[in-house]
Fold this sequence. Notes:
By secondary structure, the chain is mainly α. 78% of the residues lie in helices and 0% in strands. α6 packs across α8 (174-208) and α8 (174-208) crosses α10 (223-252).
Amino acid sequence: xxxxxxxxxxxxxxxxxxxxxxxxxxxxxxxxxxxxxxxxxxxxxxxxxxxxxxxxxxxxxxxxxxxxxxxxxxxxxxxxxxxxxxxxxxxxxxxxxxxxxxxxxxxxxxxxxxxxxxxxxxxxxxxxxxxxxxxxxxxxxxxxxxxxxxxxxxxxxxxxxxxxxxxxxxxxxxxxxxxxxxxxxxxxxxxxxxxxxxxxxxxxxxxxxxxxxxxxxxxxxxxxxxxxxxxxxxxxxxxxxxxxxxxxxxxxxxxxxxxxxxxxxxxxxxxxxxxxxxxxxxxxxxxxxxxxx
Length: 293
């Protein structure tokens, strides 16, 4: 209980520091939403000044930050400068899309990472172990956006096939939804799966050296029983710990894959907000994701 209380107490300064960091960073980006509108000649200088005053952008940054903290304390995360839609409402609408992509990627990463890690540990220092470890190094090294681009480009060149780029809800058409999500989720899972594989391999190798494993084998238990019931079960503690942290990271890591595959979730919502300098969206989404982590 004391541990939970300490963690909850640490949440307040952590969120404050993150909110301050995001608030300052978005204002370091050259130009604001009013400047973008003015460049398109949709606003006169007088209208630009009025829009800045309406959204408090004419005030000093410390005053803007204090005002923003007061809004957040009241549960008001602001409205989009471009669309006028509440940030909280848009986040709730798009979160299930991002959560589905992250959950499917987590299933792939856990299945691939644990299974490949166990196989690699059981074939330690053999040719299969070297091949699997080489694949994991590639999974850690190759950028995800490059793989995502190839997944769209190469099939279209070779077979004239383009993955579905129009979002379909799982409640409307589960099959079409799965066809759209399975490729980006699989590609998204390769990086965390590579981490899980290395952790699984090390953890299983450590457990296989324990005395109770030798005892189980000396009793004549089947190799599968020894691995699954004894070695793997006792190796899962560090694996599950790492997997929990990776799932939180996957929620924020959907930005690239949602953008490439035109999945209109929280990640794509954030990218659009950054391009449009829509401060309330950028700040609100980062607060929500930070709280989730």
